[in-house]
Amino acid sequence: MYIVTGANGGIGRAITETLARFGYRVIMACRNRQKAEQVREQITALTGNSKIEVKELDLASFASVKRFAAQLLQQGVKIDALINNAGVMCQQFGLTEDGMERMLQVNYASPWLLTRLLLPVFSPGCRILNTSSCTYRLGKIDEHFFDITAENYGLFKIYGRSKLGVLLFTAELANRLEGREITVNAIDPGVVDTGMITMHRWFDPLTDLFFRPFIKSPQKGAATALHLILSEAGKTVNGGFWVNKRLREMPEAVKKQEQRKKLWEMTENKLANYLKD
């Protein structure tokens, strides 16, 4: 079984469609169930694969993540790959129902929680893919990682923080799973032609005119993830950072085990209530 978060559009849909063509069983984990069902019907009609299922998952809610994982644990399924694809870019500061800044929760904390909760049902050879970005360079990790307010909010600063968090999580989890026949890798899909790149600002028409022709299609944005899901690379490399289907060196900040361990413990303390049985 393959799980794709944010599977009802953009890169997630492209990944799901390709997996469906290969005949795999896929769970589309999506916030908007109605839209996801429509996409599922389209993919099934296109590929002839009826083993595509929709399950509701709202990454802006830790309770929703807990419910989603509990369903799979109860069913006793075996997961062959978890693709943490879903993400958001929020122009304005906002908190989720859990009181956490939205980008940090959706892009980092909820995928961290989802992955941790599903560990018991990962099959041998399972591949975990986490979505990062080149904006990790704008991120900063310190004791105030989760302390975001309207006053210190900045779109690219916090987005970058969430994506740096993904890299640290990937490297630390890979280390902790060493020897368990499970690989964890991070990917940077690049700038992809999806709704996320629309800033709802006066310069959007100029962006469309000058830059969109150079932006990747969702299919090309999905290429690195699919490379790791379907090839031997995703089975043999653990704790890697991939761009354009090529393995890149992890940033120096991520190589520091103390930094990785610090963020892991901070996140674990933050989500302690949801890690309980």
Textual characterization of the structure:
- This protein is of the alpha/beta class.
- Helices cover 45% and strands 16% of the residues.
- The chain is built from 12 helices and 8 strands.
- The chain has helices at residues 10-21, 33-47, 62-75, 102-118, 155-176, 204-210, 218-221, 223-230, 233-236, 252-255, 257-270, 272-275, and strands at residues 2-5, 26-30, 52-56, 79-84, 122-131, 183-188, 240-243, 246-248.
- The protein has an 8-stranded mixed β-sheet, with helices on both faces.
- Helix 1 runs parallel beside helix 2 (33-47), helix 4 (102-118) packs parallel to helix 5 (155-176) and helix 5 (155-176) crosses helix 11 (257-270).
- The longest helix has 22 residues, at 155-176.
- The radius of gyration is 18 Å and the shape is globular.
- 43% of the residues are buried.
